[in-house]
Specification:
The chain is of the alpha/beta class. It has a single domain, classed as Rossmann fold, CATH 3.40.50.300. The protein contains eleven helices and eight strands. Strands 1-8-7-2-6-3-5-4 form an eight-stranded mixed beta sheet, with helices on both faces. β4 and β5 form a beta hairpin. It is globular and about 50 Å long. The two termini are 21 Å apart.
Length: 302
């Protein structure tokens, strides 16, 4: 844990040095970092509790799923008949402790956005850290904001784990958008929750990295920003393939998922450097698979 925190502090220091050089700030005025990282627990297994966890006796807000009034395109609504994977605890156990941790994550994210709108890349350094589970569960609790529209995008065009997790059978998606073979209305899939939508990865032929690097990506992200309040991209690990780095240039903001007791400091440090190279703002870090309570002094936020 200390190694991960050391990597984050090192990254902060490098950012401060670059800001100081650009602004020609004198050495005497170089003090504390302008913003501290928020280390926020949320996990697919057993997330670390927040500094001030919600009361277990408090009644969780109901996540209602009335009939869909208007579907999108010809897509079939997903989420009926138990098609959502059991790892989507925010759907299956709405009043549970882990669901409350995801709500805590939502609260801290929204605190950074006065207009309550964001376009967020969710990635990790390596595979198996829980980023896809985090993305899906976060989208579920974002959908509790019934006055806002949320879209969850599966940008892992190779493995498509998020699509399987949601039980979505639709074939067309992001790949077809990038190739100009479909419009957003053609491929967005409605869910059992009226204000939660899903964009599948589609079928990518050839080099996925080249496909993600097309100029159409910026146009697609721009359209998603205009039509939805919360846009969440689940991407491959940023240290493994280039897709996340390419997408971070369009999304501009990122949430990094780190698996405790497994992810090495060097991997986290590399992921932070790659995100910084794209000018993506790291809005938070999520620790998964915790085995003990995280001391309160490790919780930092601006």
């Amino acid at each position: 844990m200390a190694n991960v925190w050391d990597a984050i502090k090192k990254h902060q220091a490098e950012q401060e040095q670059q800001r100081a050089a650009a602004d020609q700030v004198s050495a005497e005025t170089e003090a504390a970092p302008r913003e501290a990282w928020r280390v926020t627990p949320a996990a697919d297994a057993a997330p670390a509790p927040a500094p001030a966890p919600a009361s277990q006796d408090a009644k969780a807000p109901a996540l209602q799923a009335p009939p869909i009034i208007q579907s999108v395109g010809a897509a079939k609504v997903i989420g009926h008949n138990g098609s959502f994977s059991e790892v989507l605890v925010t759907h299956h156990d709405r009043g549970g402790r882990i669901t409350e941790e995801y709500r805590s994550l939502r609260t801290h994210l929204l605190a950074q956005y006065p207009d309550e709108r964001f376009c967020l890349l969710i990635t990790s350094a390596m595979a198996g850290e829980g980023k896809t589970v985090t993305a899906a569960n976060l989208a579920m609790v974002m959908a509790e904001r019934i006055d806002r529209k949320t879209i969850l995008v599966d940008c892992d065009l190779r493995k498509k784990k998020l699509t399987a997790m949601l039980g979505c059978k639709q074939q067309a998606g992001m790949a077809e958008l990038l190739q100009g073979k479909a419009t957003l209305r053609d491929v967005v899939v409605p869910t059992v929750y009226p204000n939660l939508f899903f964009l599948p990865p589609g079928n990518a032929a050839g080099n996925v990295g080249e496909l993600m690097g097309r100029p159409e990506l910026m146009e697609i992200v721009g359209e998603l920003r205009r039509k939805y309040d919360y846009v969440l991209f689940d991407t491959p690990p940023i240290n493994v393939v280039s897709d996340a780095g390419i997408l971070s240039k369009a999304a501009n903001e990122a949430l990094l998922v780190v698996r405790m007791h497994r992810t090495h400091r060097e991997s986290v440090d590399k992921a932070l450097r790659l995100l910084h190279a794209t000018n993506a703002k790291l809005v938070g870090l999520v620790l998964t698979h915790r085995r003990f309570i995280i001391p309160s002094y490790l919780y930092r936020y601006s």
